[in-house]
Amino acid sequence: MSAFFELFAMSVNLESVNNVLVDYGWKNNLPGLHLFTILQFILLVLFFSRVLQEYLVDFLWKLVLIIGSLLILANSIFIQSIFTFNSYSKTVVELAIILASISYFVKLMLSDKIKDHNVVLTYFVTAVFVNASVSILIHLFSNSIMQMEQEFLTQLWNVRTMVNILTQFIILYGIYLVITRERKLQNRTQLDISHT
Q: What is the pLDDT of residue 85?
């Protein structure tokens, strides 16, 4: 559940910082994208390590976390400067999200207790899956995309923005479901206590 709040808060905070920097004349917000990439990777590996814990032992999740984070940092330091688009890191992170999401969906489909599954969790996984599926195409072809005519480039970024907004709304809806579920549980508990 905390993955909802953490990812949403991180997105909002980094977007806010980017907007403030642009207001003060900072033209290149790509260092923020490099920071977002590593934080997104860390948060989602920790999230999926809990959701898919029966598939990999804890040691392997930690290994994925450490090696992945080091590779992302190495890419930002040595290969793609923080002032350029980090298409290599973003592509690998998005691919990892897609694979982890598919693993979750397969786990869900093979479950004997599919009716008992956590709907909120499925909303969150669906949101990050949809976002990653669209994003990976942009990151894979970023050099070609940047060569497009401005009109087509603007349309593509508008589509990407709409998918990102949709993803944030799905995450917000998941947060809403968590909050309302907790309130219902508190009300039931209070009713049970008052009847005893």
A: 84
Could you say which DSSP state residue 83 is in? T
Please identify which residue in the block is written with the tokens 């949709």. Answer: 166
In the chain, where the domains are located: 2-195
d(CA 174, CA 162): 18
Euclidean distance between CA atoms 69 and 115, whole angstroms: 36
CB atoms within 10 A of CB 97: 24
**What region does 118 belong to: left with phi over 0, alpha with psi -120 to 50, or beta?**
beta
Residue 51 in tokens: 């959701």
Give per-residue pLDDT as tens, 64-80.
999 999 999 999 999 99
The token duo for 61 is 């999740």
d(CA 146, CA 186): 52
Whether residue 175 is predicted with pLDDT greater than 70 in this model: the reply is yes
Q: Is the pTM of this model over 0.85?
A: no
